[in-house]
Design brief:
Blueprint (H helix, E strand, L loop, with lengths): L6 E2 L3 E4 L5 H11 L2 H7 L6 H13 L3 E8 L4 E9 L11 E6 L7 H16 L4 E7 L3 H10 L2 E7 L6 E8 H6 L6
Antiparallel strand pairs: 1-2, 2-3, 3-4, 4-5, 6-8, 7-8
The protein binds coenzyme A (COA).
């Protein structure tokens, strides 16, 4: 069983996912929304499937999925994750991803990802983090570029042929961007 820390920012904090049916319903509504379906390509989950998926992640030592909370209301608004052992990259660095299900367009995704990256580089001491993002997912591509990620190649998602960028960020580049104190 993993003990994920609670990491506080200014407008959001990240911490363990709630383990309740109410939260599974909320998470399902995010996953099945048009915006998130466009961004991550999955769809039509039932509550039972969401519960099983989140429990699998919780039990997987290679999966650190944090819930993102709005700090003013303490309500869940999305998730950010680090996953280890992803085979599609030619290296051993973890992969990251994000979903903001509500209160988007308010700087929450940027801050949540900054908190996660700071934890990954500073506490877990990873030298590099990778991700893949659909080429036409402009909000996410722009977010990752704003965080300092660099595009390293364009490839096709094996499951659906959709074009996606592989992007990477090194610890050195993350901390050389001095515009923000995490
Ligand atoms: C991508 C996503 C995480 C952005 O979260 P958010 O909280 O809305 O983003 P923020 O408000 O923190 O914006 C941060 C930056 O992201 C980019 N961005 C966010 N929304 C954007 C939009 N609609 N169009 C263009 N750029 C956008 C901008 O660079 C923005 O910085 P700026 O405000 O200085 O221009 C969110 O839209 C989302 O969850 N999408 C669906 C899931 C998904 O696609 N995840 C990525 C999978 S790889």
């Amino acid at each position: 069983m993993k003990n994920l820390p609670i990491i506080k920012g200014h407008q959001v904090h990240i911490g363990p996912m709630p383990d309740t049916t109410e939260f599974y319903e909320i998470y399902k509504s995010w996953l099945n929304s048009e915006r998130v379906r466009f961004g991550i390509g999955d769809a039509d989950y039932t509550t039972e499937e969401v519960a099983e998926m989140l429990n699998t992640w919780r039990d997987d030592p290679g999966n650190l999925t944090f819930c993102v909370y709005d700090s003013a209301s303490n309500q869940p608004i999305g998730d950010v994750c680090l996953r280890y052992g992803v085979e599609e990259y030619d290296n051993d660095y973890p992969e990251t991803a994000i979903m903001i299900g509500r209160n988007f367009g308010q700087g929450n995704g940027y801050e949540a990802m900054r908190l996660l990256l700071n934890y990954a580089f500073n506490e877990l001491n990873y030298p590099q983090i990778n991700l893949s993002v659909y080429e036409d997912n402009t909000p996410a591509v722009k977010l990752y570029e704003k965080l300092g990620f660099k595009k390293i190649k364009l490839q096709n998602d094996e499951t659906n042929g959709r074009s996606e960028y592989v992007m990477m960020l090194t610890k050195k580049d993350f901390f050389s961007d001095t515009g923000y104190d995490v």
